[in-house]
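re: ur question from yesterday

yeah so i grabbed the chain u mentioned. its 310 aa long if i counted rite. heres the sequnce exactly as i have it in my notes:
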Amino acid sequence: MRRPSWTCSTWADVSGTLRLATRASPQARTQTEAIATALVAAGVGAELVFVETTGDRRQDVPLHVIGGQGVFVKEVQRAVLDGRADAAVHSAKDLPSLGHPDLLIAAFTARRDAADVLVGRSLADLPTGATVATGSVRRRAQLAAARPDLRFVELRGNIARRLAQVPDDGSIVMAAAALEVLGLTDRVAERLDPTRFVPAVGQGCVAIEAAAGGEVAALLGTVDDAATRRAVEIERAFLAELGAGCTLPVGGHVAEGVLHVFLAGSDSPDSTGHTPIARDAVALAGDVTDREIARAAARAAHAAVTRTVA
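ran it thru and got these structure tokens back, copy pasting raw so excuse formatting
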């Protein structure tokens, strides 16, 4: 079998060839192969280095139990820090808001569809009490607000495994981008409006980390998409303001000059018996003040859900 054109020698052997650390899942592999192809087109060779993460190993445990953000990231970052790779490739939504001090995000690739989708039945077609499978506390909170009658169960595993777990009477929730990457959008029953079902921060794009101040970061600039970077950095400013340890269901998405935000309180209902929720659509200025606008939106959302619980 002929080897792909982007499979080259390592950085240590030939200057200008990058070793890209990535998870080995079909989605992660395909995303990273696309980046490698783009680098080759720009005159930079590439080689994939596969890494198993905590999230990959512990597929029997809900993500929010084993740590949520970071469970698909740390081992990939470690490959760069240990010198086994030159860059770490992640789904941007998996990156914690507080980055590693020795790494910087050298590139955000052009964003795919950031929305969530239902596979199985559309929201309107789900019968009363239907089962919806998702491992995301954010998705559960948003769907429960729209349909309090729904019953939720955990969903883990790679794309193929998830698609095999669609409940007979219900649906699973997935990122549209994940299905786009693998050419499986024909499985979508409904695309959820991202202004109502606000996606995770960074959803739909890939982030590439490299050592701060090194030559690699400059080479990766060839695949950086300026519009995506601007949007995701605003979203990440919103998330960072909530705190690196925030475990509440949270979404943030920039589209057409507006930051859409979502934050739900804890599982403990307020005095009315409902879980407190904050939603907002905040107009951005289109300048350097946008990150402060995002931080202010985070403070307002947190105050709203805290005040409601109190």
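noticed a couple things. The longest helix spans residues 290-309. also The chain has three domains: 17-110+205-224, 116-191, 236-309.
anyway ttyl
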